[in-house]
Amino acid sequence: MPARILIADDDPDIRLLLRAELEPLYRVIEARDGREAWKLIQEKRPVLIVTDLGMPGIDGLELTKLVKTSEDEELAGTPVVILTGATVSDALPSGFWLKGTNADMFFEKPFDPATLRAGLDRLIKRRMNWKELPPGQGFYEGEQPV
Q: Which pLDDT score, from 0 to 100, does residue 110 have?
């Protein structure tokens, strides 16, 4: 069974783009806002979460905090990748979103889908302690660890 990735973004075009990039190799679960995402995270236990920062209800910062401070160690270890249109400027130092959120990776919109996919592959491989697979094959639940 393909590994599950949760995409939390209120922009349907971003969810569509990410689904198109990821679905051939991963099972994509979508949430339109942070409340829906938090519910799905607890129910479906994705191996990785990609979240926008600016969402209604629970925003991406709060969602990341809920995941990373969970008393459930497995859940707290779930990699979180932040996507945002909020750019790093002179007011925000480089690395701000990673240091301020405990996120595992950060991408500014617009982003290159292939670069994002490569980053997600690395995080999933590390999370699951999987061996390297040939390019283009992705990483799957149930594969034997190295």
A: 86
